[in-house]
């Protein structure tokens, strides 16, 4: 069977999970923009103070750090640090031909872990809560990589 085909149920699961993570990353970027516009601040660069349709009355205070905006930026950065490893490990995992149930548990498990991590971050839960969801997602990526290595090396 051609493994990179939507007729392959494992690849289908990967495609859904990977697509959801694309939407998560892109959505977090838009959330940051929304938050910047909502507070009219937290701009990232000096050139953002040039007058335009969105920022009609620029003020130097708009460049000051704003925790509401910075929290979203940190969430976005965290996604960018973690989700690409999932995409790579997950795709290699598809080539290792795991069972469908294992693929569903690991691939969808990562998606759920990332979403719960984001909710915990957005609602300012403790580091321990965020770390729990981060750890779950990280362990899933490592397990997929180890599974793949085991198939390849044996």
From TrEMBL:
Entry keywords, A to Z: Acetylation, Endoplasmic reticulum, Membrane, Transferase, Transmembrane, Transmembrane helix
EC number: 2.5.1.18
Matching Gene3D superfamilies: Membrane associated eicosanoid/glutathione metabolism-like domain
Superkingdom of origin organism: Bacteria
Keyword rRNA processing on entry: no
Location of this chain's protein in the cell: Endoplasmic reticulum membrane
Membrane topology: Multi-pass membrane protein
TM regions (residue ranges): 6-26, 83-111, 131-153
Function, in words: Conjugation of reduced glutathione to a wide number of exogenous and endogenous hydrophobic electrophiles.
Subunit structure and binding partners: Homotrimer; The trimer binds only one molecule of glutathione.
UniProt-recorded name of the protein: Microsomal glutathione S-transferase 1
Organism: Nereida ignava
